[in-house]
Amino acid sequence: EDAPRPAKRLQLVRRGKTVDQNEFTAASLNTDDPETLLPALADLHNAIPLTTEIQNQGVFDEVMNIGQRNKSHKVLAQVIHTSCSLSQCDPCDPKMQDRVIHLALSLVTSTKFIVLVRSLEAIGNLCPTEVGSVQSSITHTLLTHTTHQDNRVRTAAFNSLLLIQDKGVLIPSEAYDSACVALSDDYQSVREAALLIIKVVADTDPERLLPIAASDDHMRLVDHAFSQLCSVVHDISVRVRTQAAALLGTLNAVSEKFLQQTWDKKLISNMRRKRSAHERARAMVSSGEWSTGKRWADDTPKEQVAAESVSIISTGSCGAFVHGLEDEFLEVRNATLDSICALALNNAQFANHSLDFLVDMFNDEIEEVRLKAIQVLQQVAGLVTLRADQLEEILHALRDSSLDIRECLHTFLATTILSTISSVKLCVNALLENLRRYPQDRRSIHRCLRRVGMNHPTLVQALVAELLVIHPYFDGVEPSVQDPEYICKLILVLNAAVKCTTILPLLEQHTLRHYAYLRDTMPQLVPVLKLGEEWQPSRVPVSTNTLQFLKESVSRVGRLERSSTQLRMTVYQTVYSDLIKLADIDPSLSAASHFAASYTECLLLFGKILATRNWLTPSSLSMQQTGALKANVDRLLKTTFRLRHAFTNLSPVEEASIRNLRVRTLALQLVYVVHGSTGSALGLCDNFLEHTEALHRYLTDEGLSADSFLEGVFDELSQLEEPRPGAVARILQPLLLTHNIPPVPPVLHHPVQVHMCSAEIIEPQSDSETIHKLSAGLVVGVPLDAEITHIPDPSTLRVRVCYPDHCTQLVVPPRSHLRQVGEGTYRLLTTVLLSAQVSWSEACHLKNNGRPARDLCWNIG
Prior knowledge:
The chain is an alpha+beta fold. The longest helix is centred in the last third of the chain and has 25 residues, at 652-676.
């Protein structure tokens, strides 16, 4: 062993520290010096809550006494702030809160802003929910200070009104009028607080009628509030504009005419009104005329406009969303898109009106805004009908270099409904061009075409002959089933044939043969069609009892505790092979089968190691026996590590069994290294102690009992003064030899719920013809596209690169390269840097190898 060093003390039970950091007494505040009181009050506020209720009462009384005898405005502000927090400590004392309220109300006449702000915050936090004189006095005080000369006081007054509204206190109607006036305040913080007041009042009483100035008519409060928020979309502050645009989507009870006004945008040239591009496109489509889209002088000013009727500055809700979408800051544009989406989901007419403007956002210069626009359009796809000119504009986005935008657009096209044959043809051609330009989008395009075919069966029927190049009386050349574009067309046609059976007689013989091939290779994309038995894949449904077989296999392992070593080894090997085959037969039991198989493999390896004669003295073994023993130990460590991290959704009993097995493996490794190596085992000993301590805490927290092996480990190690490797190994050696491993844990109650982490490498493919050349000493980037499922912690993901010189690199992919596509499922899109050593003298080939549920690895060789 190495030179003595401070050994790690094993703590089987960690007792929480009970150091009291809140030891404040009333005596520490017995001073009138403001420079001494301010730090003491600040420290007291940071230490809240105090340890005992009695101590809390004593300190509170002393703080209130300071407020009565001290006249410093800074001290008074801190007194109110601290006493308010003290009165809200659990359990709350109404008498203490009343004293703070009266103190704060008595100081609202102060001329110092800090005292006023703290007082208004205190009465807002402590306002009682019962109707009475105190409540009315508080609301009156807050309303009065919304017009205070100091902007900080006005902001505090509005924020306190929001606090009492959250408590269920009905704020008076005058608060809405004050908030509307405050929208023209010079200070940003005041306008932000006023916007929230308007939104809260509109949600509370939306149907209240408000008189219209200079008129005998009335309007609903929610409509008036919507107009007020729309007027703030032109605010000079970016934060205010963003908040106003976001709040527009929360008012769902707005009248239809106010919603339609938000898209009002008039173009005037020389006092004549011009038609916008949206109006010209709509008119051309509705006329039914054939046109290239450009007509002579179609934007010439037509209608004469009176100068008196022109308003240069938009009022009310007119053009609010237009201005929001054209704002120079992306925060405002994103907030506007969110509001449009929220309102369009509740109003189909508004959704159709917003379609042109959403399509225009596809041309935004910011990728985030373009992606948001596609997502909004995707959510309202069921409420709108796309015109041909709009679809053509949307399909231009398939040329975007951003993968997120293209895939999001694929999802939108899969959910939208197209109205004409030409639209379907235009969509298919654009997707095929997308496939030629970006071959890595193959999977997403396949899913999109599958849904397009299912949603438009009759329209696809009219395109079958053109898509598959079917001539009425000439036989064409049989396409290659490896052609990506031909596969896309087949996916479209075959999915449309499910709902439109008249497509089937149009298909040629080679198309039916290709259907049988695709049905076997892509069952998730190609449906089952009602064809003759000649063309159906040879899959005969057979009733299997895989669950019963899994239970019987595990029960065989559990009955071997008293059997001979040779019999146990034979049964372990048989059960392990059966479980691996069962995982391939029944996908629903794949995770549970792999779990039981890995556990059985650990039992088999333990038996082989302990059955090796003189395994505690490796120096007496032959070289072949030593190599086999070391290989079994390494394989056992790897298998238990995989059991510990590759399986999720386990019960506490199953988790405890895996941790127990891991601790046994680390104990075996420690004993093996101490007896058979001359190197230091301090790191292995510390690692074993950490896992043992963590297992003890886990068993204690879950209320589970330890087995005889763990009880012996806990008892012996708790009595050990210095847990050095030699002493720990001497304790573990007899325990390992006398205590058998428990059988497979009961994963059979809910085997389908067990999940196994797996990785599938999509790109680069094993049959890819792409060649990546690199020079020795330099690096080359290889794009990697993989899908990882059931990973509990994405930060633990590593990409392993194996080189032919037996070097291995673990690459940590950036967190931003992981995209969550489902619960516990992530897609990894990254570039792995590969490098060759200068000493290499021969060329090597790159091949990828993805092993599910084991590693995400590349082998070079």
